[in-house]
Write a structure and sequence with these properties.
- The protein has 151 residues and is α+β, with helices and mostly antiparallel strands.
- It has one domain.
- Helix content is 25%, strand content 32%.
- A hairpin with a 2-residue loop joins strand 5 and strand 6.
- The longest helix is centred in the N-terminal third of the chain and has 10 residues.
- It starts with a strand and ends with a strand.
Amino acid sequence: MKENLHFELSVFMDVEFSMRVPENADYGYWLMLAERFLKLGQQIEIHCWNEEQEAMRGLEDLLQKQQESQYAVFSGEVTPELMHLLMKAYLNSDGGFKWFSIFLSSDETTISTFEHWATEFFVPDISKETELYIRKIMPAETNFHLYEDEF
């Protein structure tokens, strides 16, 4: 049976949760997760709310854009230029994570998801080594849920 890991931060700067920013606005874990998972993905999909114009800048040059009613979906291949953008320009002008959701896949199989402005994550079919690595790099207040997939 495959094991899947869902994990999410539980302590935020904004008690209203209108914008999920980690305590102390520390996204150091993002860089370590991105470094590990971006090289595994071949395809990427990034969702941005319509009002997040700053988040969309740069993506439009690297990915295909599909406009939905309340958000935009950017999709395409993971390239070195895109990896650079995601790892070097991931904060908006307010110091928060730019993108609402990021989905990585390879051969139409999900590799990982990074959601709610990089505060909630999912890794299917996770190895023990990767699980331990994630538990080590995430903030202490992270909630982890490891479960078996019946398929």
